[in-house]
Design brief:
The chain is of the alpha+beta class. It contains two helices and 13 strands. Strand 3 and strand 4 form a beta hairpin. It is globular and about 60 Å long. The two termini are 39 Å apart.
């Protein structure tokens, strides 16, 4: 969380600071933050307003609207009348936005019921990282796609494609890449319509590297890069992205329909 106590008075509870000058404990800080968020949910509910639940499915950014149906002392139940509710079945946490919140709220998914069209969320906290919708739709490939990343004319580092958009690409690789390194990225995307491969050779810049556990053991790095395709290549990527997006959303809708019938 990122709760900031006001000088002199705790501006949420109007209590003077502790006499011995001790700071709020981590647990109290979380409790105060959770209470503040729950109080705001009460205000949103009383005003008969909704919230936006932010989530992703196979890399695709989703923002279904939700209304509050119940608030307990630690959970909030939301009604979602949209097939995108099905995407919550594949997540452990979700983000919430409303004008009343100073920052985006993060929550854990406690229960989801597609038949009755609701989700129960808990463990609310503010996150300082703004959740911004990407400029371009990003999709994940259907199967593993090998990527080769060249830096300074080296022999190239093998990586696996995580997701791609017309202006960015994310890959998994064992060695990390330096931030802001200039690279060349080679990969092939399958065009399922014509059953041909679209060969891409893209200049890029490394924007971030995150270390994570490799499912095969050891450590790997997820590397995000901005790419600079020419017009022809950009068109090819855009077509691939829109095909993958349509396929993934249809798959999600099918899953929703199947679950709703049970």
């Amino acid at each position: 969380g990122n709760y900031r106590a006001a000088q002199g008075l705790d501006h949420r509870h109007g209590k003077p600071p502790a006499e011995d000058g001790s700071r709020t404990s981590g647990y109290e800080k979380i409790t105060m933050e959770t209470n503040d968020i729950l109080n705001k949910f009460h205000l949103i509910s009383q005003a008969k307003k909704g919230v936006i639940l932010i989530n992703a499915y196979k890399g695709i950014h989703l923002e279904p609207d939700a209304t509050i149906s119940n608030i307990s002392n630690s959970t909030v139940t939301f009604n979602v009348h949209d097939y995108q509710l099905a995407s919550f079945a594949f997540q452990k946490q979700i983000f919430i936005q409303n004008d009343l919140f100073p920052e985006t709220v993060k929550a854990k998914i406690k229960e989801i019921n597609i038949v009755k069209k609701y989700v129960v969320l808990t463990d609310f906290e503010y996150v300082t990282v703004p959740i911004v919708k990407r400029k371009a739709t990003r999709v994940q490939p259907e199967g593993p796609i090998e990527v080769t990343v060249f830096e300074h004319g080296d022999a190239g580092i093998k990586a696996e494609l995580v997701d791609i958009s017309e202006c960015g690409i994310s890959v998994c690789m064992t060695p990390p890449l330096l931030l802001y390194a200039k690279v060349y990225i080679h990969l092939q995307l399958l065009d399922t319509k014509t059953n041909t491969h679209l060969k891409l050779e893209l200049p890029g810049t490394v924007l971030h590297t995150i270390q994570e556990d490799d499912p095969q053991g050891g450590i790997r790095h997820r590397v995000g890069m901005q790419i600079f395709p020419d017009e022809h290549t950009k068109r090819g990527i855009t077509e691939y992205v829109s095909r993958q997006q349509a396929k993934s959303l249809n798959e999600l809708k099918r899953y929703y329909d199947e679950q709703a019938l049970q």
